[in-house]
Amino acid sequence: MAPTLWLLLATATLLTAAPPSCGAGAGQCPSDTPCCSQYGQCGVGAFCLQGCDPLASFSLQSCVPMPVCKSGSFALASLDRVASISDFLGDPTKADFVAQGTPLSYQNGTLLTMPKNSVGTVLSWTRYMWYGKVSAAMRSSRGQGVVTSFMYRLSLSLLTSSTMSDVHDEVDWEFVGNDLQQAQSNFYWQAVLNCTSLSVSHLTPDTNSGNHSISDSFATTHTYTIDWSPEVLKWDIDGQTVRTLNKVDTYNATTGNFQYPQTPSRIQFSLWPGGLASNAPGTIKWAGGEIDWNSQDIQKYSYDFAFLESVNIECYGPPPGATVQGQTSYVWLDNKGLNTSIAIKDDKTIISSLAATGTNLTAGGTAANSNIQTQTVQNVPGQGSVAGSSAQGSQGGTSSFSGSSSGSGSASGSSSASGSTEAQNGFNQGKSLATRTVLHPGVLFFIASITFILN
Ligand SMILES: *[C@@H]1O[C@H](CO)[C@@H](O)[C@H](O)[C@H]1NC(C)=O
Ligand SMILES: *[C@@H]1O[C@H](CO)[C@@H](O)[C@H](O)[C@H]1NC(C)=O
Ligand SMILES: *[C@@H]1O[C@H](CO)[C@@H](O)[C@H](O)[C@H]1NC(C)=O
Ligand SMILES: *[C@@H]1O[C@H](CO)[C@@H](O)[C@H](O)[C@H]1NC(C)=O
Ligand SMILES: *[C@@H]1O[C@H](CO)[C@@H](O)[C@H](O)[C@H]1NC(C)=O
Ligand SMILES: *[C@@H]1O[C@H](CO)[C@@H](O)[C@H](O)[C@H]1NC(C)=O
Prior knowledge:
By secondary structure, the chain is mainly beta. The protein contains five helices and 27 strands.
C-alpha cells in the first residue's frame, strides 16, 4: 500500500486501531470485516457499498450489488438529494449523490470545498453506469496544488500475477488549479497507462492523457461530457468532441483483451489536494506545486472550491451479449474484470444498517435499532469506528451539512468545515495518485484524480 495513504490514514484513525488493509499487495479482507474500500481498508456497512472492491474483499459477494444506471438530470442547487456517506444505506431512490467532505449550496449549484488542511470533497452518484453519457456544467478551482476532477471510477480491482492489485478502469476529466486554460482527459484500463506495445502503433505512452484548451475553467462554466459506449469513448467540451478513443485501438494481442474501460462505473466529482506536502513529489509537481493553504480563496472564504451546477446522465442499454437476468443491479460473475464479468440481476442493493455486508444485508437490524451493536468495526471508509454507538454513524464527525444552506459561499458556510482535519474528513484521496506516481514517476500529464482516486 502506498506510504501516502498510510500517512493520511494514520491521522484519520487516531482514535481507533487501524483496520485491516486490503488490495495492492495486502490481500483480501478477513471474514469479520469483509469489504475492501477504495482506500484499501476493510470494514462493513459503507465499505460494502460504493467503491467496494470485489476482488480484494473476502469474497466476490462481500460487496453489495451495484444499483443499475437510470437516466436523470440533477440540478445541484440544493443538497436535499445529497446524503452523507455516514447516513447512506445504498438506496438510490433516497439520494442522488453521496458526499464525503463538505459540499455547500451556493447560488444555483453546489460548491465542493476544500478547507485548509483538509482532503477536499467528493460527490459520488448513488448508481453505477455501464455505458452512457454524463455531462456536468462546472467550474474548476484555482491555485497551485488544487485539482478538480470529474471522473468515472470503478469499484474493481484485478488479480494480477499472484498479488492483489488495486488497478481500475477509469475515465477522467481533470483540472489543475494552476492552469486554468487547459482541461485534461484520461482513461485507464485496470490502471494500465502504457499502450506502446499495443497492436496499433499510433498509441503512445501519452495516449491515455490529453490536453484541451478552454477559456478560464475557474471563471467560466463549461459543460464537460464523457460519452462512453461499448466501442467508442468520447470527451466533449461544450458539445464539441475534443477526443475520441476507439476500443479496437486498445487491443492487446498478447492477452486478447481490449484495454478499454468496460465494467460498471461510478461517477464522482471531487476536489482534492494533489499538492499535499505528504504526496509523492511527482504528484505535487503535476498539481502545480505544493498546495498553498493561504491561497486567495482560503483567505477570503476559508476554503478553496470548485462549483458544480448540474449533472446530466443518459444511460445506454446493456451491451450486446450481456447477461441480463433482471433489471435492478449489476453483479460480478467472476474476477476477470472484463465486460463478460458482469450480469444484470434483481439482487438487492440496500443494506438495513451500517453493520451489514453483501452477504448479510440485514445484519445489525434496521438503522433505528442498530445501536445495539457493540462491536468495534469500521463501517464508514476513512472514518473512525463508532464503537458501541449507532451503526448509523452520523456522529462520525464528517459531513454534517450544517451551514450548508447559508448559500453565500462565504466563511459563513464554513462552520461545518472549520477545524476540519483529515481526522474528521477522514477519507483519503491520495491512493491512486500514489499508484499512478509509481507507474510514471515524475511525469506530469497522466495522473488522475481522485483518488480517489478520489478516487
Ligand atoms: C445557473 O445560473 C446561471 C447564471 O444565472 C445560468 O446561466 C445557468 O443556466 C443556471 N443553471 C441552472 C442549472 O439553473
Ligand atoms: C512503455 O512500455 C515500453 C515497452 O514495454 C517501454 O519501453 C517504455 O519505457 C514504457 N514507457 C513508460 C512511460 O512506462
Ligand atoms: C499486454 O498484455 C501483456 C500480458 O498481460 C502485458 O505484459 C503487456 O504489458 C500488455 N501490453 C500493454 C501495452 O499494456
Ligand atoms: C465484450 O467485448 C467483446 C470484445 O469486444 C465483445 O465481442 C462482446 O460483445 C462484449 N460483451 C459484452 C457483454 O459487452
Ligand atoms: C445476519 O446477521 C444477523 C446478526 O446481525 C444474524 O442474526 C443473521 O442470522 C444473519 N443472517 C445470515 C443469513 O447470516
Ligand atoms: C499537458 O499539459 C501539461 C502541462 O502543460 C504537460 O506537462 C503535459 O505533457 C501535457 N500532456 C500532453 C499529453 O500533451
